[in-house]
């Protein structure tokens, strides 16, 4: 409206429609209103006449945030004063048509006229598009004459070459927690312009970025240091184990850097010494590397404690921070009373802050606060607090520690991070991020937010996992029923499956809440390609082959991957005593039952033999404990209805079968689970099979090795395995349980 009034004062009442449209577009598209008057003046004086000129003018203003603008350069950039005559348009179109004359005469009106338009426009950037189109139409008509019936027929479509299935790229679709079947690779989603992120050094082009008189000089220094390289960081707190939500953050930060030829730092946000432990530092790095990423450098917020302290003193000197004595309870929430110490003299705050550093204040007796109001209304966030706790790395050098709000942006600045990627809940801290860097006149990166990844039927908060461990509901942070990354690894989820899951969720701004079965589907895809086949029996039933064809065990060749026998075979012994699943035998075959029963033979997988029941042996209680059978070569026997798996001369093992830890989708939601998450535990989340049998081909397997046990599912060797007693965790079943989808 201001632009319209300004234009009316210059033009009087004669504000035509075209000028009005330009003014409206200017007001709608201009991010920084300080240049509104400048642009309106050019429109009012009819020096900017077209939308093309306006777009160029807006781009120039966006790329030159500092005053004053170079007027001559601005006018050159958006074609002010350039008048394109009808004669120039006629000559340019004539030259283009002459260049394509042969194709035009051959294809006539089926020729792509847009090509002529585009080439003429490239020669006459500021010419009116409609005038060029009219001239092209006129000269084409002159060359070809009016359209004939043949010209009006539709051009036959050329069939596009189809991609082989393996070459097909998929596109991420996430709607209401459902995952589309098509997934673009994560690197494709993150490459180049895909996310509309700024280019390194062009931070000022980001909406909301604050430009100061020093910004351009600081960005110039930044580019000199980084060489225009993309720099990101993954900044976990070392006070807990990473979970599935962190996998998205790892993929986003490391992936964005990798996709754009940049680097990613692993920076531990170790500003809270009370909760930090060595095991967390180690586990975090281990999980980052397990997912396939190598940090450019491993750094710690504590590496910069001296610099951060020096900057805190500078912030006080500039009148932007003060020492406050309000209690923690008083300043909690969004409407705390203003601090009575906000306007205390700078010299006083400097002395008191030094006293804080020397340990003259007890915990909670003094804080250093910054003078700003954040987006969410929170006023004067705390920068430093007193904690008499030795630090994991700096020992007892400090008794004051910086907060996240103070530390994070300054560490990003020190490391010259280009894109500070964080989850949506940190959007409320964006203003303090920009404010603090600018208050200290240091390089200011850009904070970008993305949506969190949440999973149903689980809890991921550190506090709640600790409660589960303390109450004995789970064994530890790596219990395979949890969705921490160490737990997923222990259960047997391949890192590629987790990365693929993150790619399918997509790098959305919206929060994504997903079903666990979608992650399980990603695991099946990867394990089907990676996990060699073996045979195991969970509930063994002894079978004696009375006419076994050899005096000792035979060796049977079993393909590691039946769909691709070029990937090798392994040998398993086949003896007169074999073990099958109890559930693969029935004394009476119901209609539709195809496995072993009296009068109903079955094939033994990979052996080339069919077995037929001769005798059923039972114990005193009537339970079947052994079968006596005869075998027949499958090439002479009638084809059986089914083939079953078996083991012979097997290894004893323990198998752990997992189900969901919680009964409800949202165990933390009081409306769904009024008694709290601990009341929602699934009593059947773990079933241990103590006396399972597995074929001897797995005897040399190590912890985390993975197998597909035929007909049973995908399994991983657990670290609890000992000499003579292997332990396997079921990762996922072979097929999705319809009840879980």
From TrEMBL:
Enzyme Commission numbers on file: 6.1.1.18
GO-annotated molecular function: ATP binding; glutamine-tRNA ligase activity
Record domain Glutamyl/glutaminyl-tRNA synthetase class Ib catalytic: where: 229-528
Reaction equation(s) it catalyzes: tRNA(Gln) + L-glutamine + ATP = L-glutaminyl-tRNA(Gln) + AMP + diphosphate
Pfam families membership: tRNA-synt_1c (PF00749), tRNA-synt_1c_C (PF03950), tRNA-synt_1c_C2 (PF20974), tRNA_synt_1c_R1 (PF04558), tRNA_synt_1c_R2 (PF04557)
Residue ranges of domain Glutamyl/glutaminyl-tRNA synthetase class Ib anti-codon binding in the record: 531-629
One term under GO cellular component: cytosol
Protein's GO biological process: glutaminyl-tRNA aminoacylation
Record PROSITE patterns: AA_TRNA_LIGASE_I (PS00178)
Alphabetically ordered keywords of this record: Aminoacyl-tRNA synthetase, ATP-binding, Ligase, Nucleotide-binding, Protein biosynthesis
EC top class, as a word: ligase
UniProt domain tRNA synthetases class I (E and Q) anti-codon binding: residue ranges: 643-718
Coiled-coil intervals: none
Keyword Ligase: yes
Entry-linked Gene3D superfamilies: 1.10.10.2420, Glutaminyl-tRNA synthetase, non-specific RNA binding region part 1, domain 1, HUPs, Ribosomal Protein L25, Chain P
PANTHER family: GLUTAMINE--TRNA LIGASE, GLUTAMINE-TRNA LIGASE
Family named by the database record: Belongs to the class-I aminoacyl-tRNA synthetase family.
Name by which UniProt lists this protein: glutamine--tRNA ligase
Organism, as annotated: Peucedramus taeniatus (Olive warbler)
